[in-house]
């Protein structure tokens, strides 16, 4: 239903926003008092996580007092999660970085002096010119997350380096994207996974903690699907929030997910649950797949996974009965055991056999968007050397953070001597943090561009304070739900203190380095207006509403006139991967057993809180009140054996003898005996993060090991074993 401008403004004032800020004193202003204030409702979109929900900010006398979901934006639909509601807690955080800082002591000791922006830029320029002269421009690397990465990426290219890497690739979704691209020619997501859960008859989740990872519209679809009667199958060693809604919970032995997937593929083929017509029209390699999975019988899968054979068979039959209006969720965080691309291939193949790609209730097709690109009048200089961020991994599709770190330590194939880091706390995102510290020691320059004084920021030579998402413009966002649309991020208030947006920092660094010709605009809004004009979008209307749909982009399902396209070598869904065959890799996934926990130890698994985005929100005072510390989940059987009661203080010790902080034990029947579970992101070591400093266990600190995927180069993190010890 179309929403008029008048109704939009009504929604802006009265949209339900959740209870997180119920005690916020700003919200308690009486109607009479509000009448005396200058009140504005400004649309933008959120960056408390990567989902980028549309929001409407209520601004009274220049101060944000409330954030609500934009009813026009398809990723919020009038709602925000707890994190989105608490965004102004980030905006007004007393611990925010307020001015540029230059290190005066040793790296990591927290000693800095205030500097002007010109002084900070001059320091960086002098160091960069020294690195360039001695080692070449390619010896500078960028680690980025979030919207600011694109602007610093432009600076990196202008400088002449190809070494741009993303923790979100190697530590999160990289293996999934590679797996689905090998199978379908594209991944299952742009920002949001294209999972049609609202229309699904059966939904299967492999470790996807919906309800704990609060991806707004995704969870709305999940709830709608369950409300419409969808059956839910959850595969997880822990009885998660999602498992609590499941028809079938499969508490799988960690490390054996691929065994279950291959067993399911075998059953689908042997019992003929597959969509024959769909496969004949759109897929290739069925006979090779059939032969390759013969050995993976239900009996074999039951032994490997420690699951009852009957439950395994019944679960896949449920998917088969209701195909193609079913979905095996592709998942998001994928970095588990080092065979993650093949696990993703298994999920992609299973969806293909059930005919879900492009079908209602399955994985909908991306919207058709034909937006003209702005012409690049000036080309960046060609790098002297190829990027080392892809390593020797044949299908790596993104910059691998651990490859950049390795080269910084050993100087191979050439040295990395300067890091720029924006929007990511590498001490929490990269495994084996002791190696990150070792790499930092080898740097001539470390620059962090951030909002908060995180663990990684406080190791820097120069700290450049940036704006929150509520204080800046960012490039126009193309939103790709079933319909495509254009969303705007714009300042809802003026920037706080002496901070600058990332686009301006990148521009001014280019100017300082003599690279100003590579920046084609004076302000980002100038470029945004040009982009809107090119796309035939009314920029002034976009400023008012926050979101404008792209006409005629809705084509989510296969029809006679809307046929899917597969950018694979065969132009079909590849059940047997010709690309992997050419790479001398297994063209059909094979199961390999993983190391099991030694006696007296447990596999460390981890997840997230619904009110936090990992370490990014831990210092937010409203969210901190909801969840200010993690705990260790352990089986009640194990707890009895170890003499640990619920709520007792415990700590973890990893295989290298590293000891965690002390936290409470959560003794529960909701987890297997061979693993323990913690929420990721706690345990900050930065004293300037006053809310979260020293609170909870830093699970990354426990991750001295990781398993690198031979296909995608991503880092499997669930290969660490810990002891749990009661505090004496």
Question: Compute the gyration radius: what is it?
Answer: 25 Å
Rough outline: globular
> Regions with pLDDT < 50 over 5+ consecutive residues?
1-30
Count of β-strands: 27
CATH top level assignment of the domain at 189-365 and 562-582: Alpha Beta
Give a quick rundown of the structure:
The protein has 728 residues and is α/β, with parallel strands linked by helices. It is built from 23 helices and 27 strands.
3D architecture notes:
- The chain is α/β, with parallel strands linked by helices and 728 residues long.
- Among the domains are: 150 residues, Single Sheet (N-terminal domain of TfIIb); 198 residues, Dimethylsulfoxide Reductase, domain 2; 125 residues, Barwin-like endoglucanases.
- Helix content is 30%, strand content 17%.
- It contains 23 helices and 27 strands.
- The strands form seven sheets. It has a seven-stranded mixed beta sheet, with helices on one face. It has a six-stranded mixed beta sheet with strand order 21-23-22-27-20-24. It has a four-stranded parallel beta sheet with strand order 10-9-8-12.
- Helix 9 runs antiparallel to helix 12 and helix 9 crosses helix 13.
- The longest helix has 19 residues.
- The radius of gyration is 25 Å and the shape is globular.
- The N and C termini lie far apart (62 Å).
- The N terminus is likely disordered.
Task: Summarize the helices and strands and which ones pair or pack.
Elements: H1 5-14, H2 31-35, E1 39-45, E2 54-60, E3 63-69, H3 82-85, H4 87-91, E4 101-103, E5 112-114, H5 117-135, E6 140-144, H6 148-159, E7 164-165, H7 167-184, E8 202-206, H8 216-227, E9 231-235, E10 248-250, H9 257-270, H10 276-282, E11 283-284, H11 286-292, H12 298-305, H13 309-322, E12 326-328, H14 340-353, H15 401-410, E13 418-422, H16 426-429, H17 433-441, E14 445-450, E15 462-465, E16 474-480, E17 484-489, H18 502-512, H19 524-534, H20 539-545, E18 547-549, E19 573-574, H21 578-582, E20 602-607, H22 621-626, E21 632-635, H23 636-642, E22 649-654, E23 663-668, E24 675-679, E25 707-708, E26 715-716, E27 721-726
Parallel strand pairs: 6-7, 6-13, 8-9, 8-12, 9-10, 11-19, 13-14, 14-15, 20-24, 21-23
Antiparallel strand pairs: 1-2, 2-3, 4-5, 4-15, 16-17, 17-18, 20-27, 22-23, 22-27, 25-26
């Amino acid at each position: 239903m179309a929403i008029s401008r008048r109704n939009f403004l009504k929604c802006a004032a009265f949209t339900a926003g959740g209870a997180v800020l119920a005690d916020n004193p700003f919200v308690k202003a009486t109607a009479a008092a509000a009448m005396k204030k200058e009140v504005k409702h400004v649309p933008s979109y959120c960056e408390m996580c990567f989902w980028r929900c549309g929001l409407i900010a209520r601004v009274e006398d220049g101060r944000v007092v409330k954030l609500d979901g934009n009813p026009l934006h398809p990723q919020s639909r009038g709602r925000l999660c707890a994190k989105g509601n608490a965004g102004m807690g980030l905006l007004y955080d007393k611990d925010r970085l307020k001015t540029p800082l230059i290190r005066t002591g040793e790296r990591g000791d927290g000693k800095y002096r205030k500097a002007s922006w010109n002084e900070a830029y001059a320091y960086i320029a002098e160091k960069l010119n020294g690195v360039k002269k001695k080692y070449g421009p390619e010896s500078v690397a960028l680690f980025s997350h979030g919207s600011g990465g694109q602007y610093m990426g432009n600076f990196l290219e202008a400088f002449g380096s190809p070494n741009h890497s993303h923790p979100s690739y190697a530590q999160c979704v990289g293996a999934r994207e590679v797996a689905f691209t090998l199978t379908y020619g594209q991944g299952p997501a742009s920002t949001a996974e294209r999972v049609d859960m609202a229309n699904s008859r059966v939904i299967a989740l492999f470790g996807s903690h919906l309800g704990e990872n609060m991806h707004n519209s995704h969870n709305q679809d999940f709830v709608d699907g369950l409300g419409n009667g969808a059956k839910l199958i959850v595969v997880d060693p822990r009885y998660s929030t999602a498992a609590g809604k499941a028809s079938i919970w499969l508490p799988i032995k960690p490390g054996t997910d691929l065994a279950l997937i291959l067993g399911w593929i075998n059953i689908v083929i042997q019992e003929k649950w597959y969509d024959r017509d769909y496969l004949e029209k759109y897929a290739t390699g069925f006979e090779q797949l059939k032969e390759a999975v013969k050995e993976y019988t239900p009996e074999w899968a039951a032994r490997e996974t420690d699951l009852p054979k009957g439950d395994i068979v019944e679960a896949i039959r449920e998917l088969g009965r209701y195909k193609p209006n079913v979905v095996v969720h592709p998942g998001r965080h994928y970095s588990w055991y080092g065979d993650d691309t093949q696990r993703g291939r298994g999920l992609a193949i299973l969806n293909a056999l059930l005919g879900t790609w492009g079908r209602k209730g399955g994985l909908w097709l991306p919207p058709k968007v034909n937006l003209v690109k702005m012409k690049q009048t000036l080309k960046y200089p060609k790098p002297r050397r190829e990027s080392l961020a892809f390593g020797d991994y044949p299908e790596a599709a993104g910059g691998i953070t651990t490859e950049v770190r390795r080269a910084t330590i050993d100087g191979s194939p050439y040295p990395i001597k300067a890091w720029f880091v924006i929007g990511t706390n590498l001490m929490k995102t990269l495994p084996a943090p002791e190696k990150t510290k070792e790499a930092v020691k080898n740097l001539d320059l470390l620059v962090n561009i951030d909002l908060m004084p995180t663990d990684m920021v406080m190791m820097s030579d120069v700290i450049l304070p940036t704006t929150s998402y509520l204080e800046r413009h960012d490039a126009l966002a193309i939103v790709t739900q079933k319909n495509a649309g254009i969303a705007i991020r714009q300042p809802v208030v003026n920037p706080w203190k002496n901070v600058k947006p990332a686009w301006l920092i990148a521009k001014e660094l280019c100017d300082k380095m003599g690279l100003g010709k590579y920046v084609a605009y004076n302000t980002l809004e100038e470029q945004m207006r040009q982009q809107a004009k090119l796309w035939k979008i009314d920029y002034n209307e976009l400023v008012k509403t926050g979101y404008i749909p792209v006409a005629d982009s809705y084509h989510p399902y296969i029809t006679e006139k809307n046929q899917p396209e597969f950018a694979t070598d065969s132009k079909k869904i590849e059940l047997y991967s010709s690309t992997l065959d050419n790479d001398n890799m297994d063209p059909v996934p094979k199961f390999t057993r993983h190391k099991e926990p030694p006696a007296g130890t447990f596999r460390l698994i981890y997840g997230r809180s619904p009110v936090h985005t990992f370490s990014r929100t831990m210092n937010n005072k409203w969210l901190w009140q909801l969840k200010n510390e993690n705990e260790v989940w352990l089986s009640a059987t194990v707890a009895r054996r170890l003499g640990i009661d619920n709520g007792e203080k415990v700590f973890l010790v990893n295989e290298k003898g590293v000891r965690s902080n002390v936290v409470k034990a959560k003794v529960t029947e909701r987890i297997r005996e061979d693993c323990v579970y913690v929420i990721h992101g706690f345990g900050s070591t930065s004293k300037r993060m006053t809310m979260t400093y020293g609170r909870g266990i830093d699970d990354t600190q426990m991750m001295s090991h990781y398993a690198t995927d031979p296909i995608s180069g991503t880092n499997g993190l669930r290969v660490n074993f810990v002891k749990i010890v009661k505090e004496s």
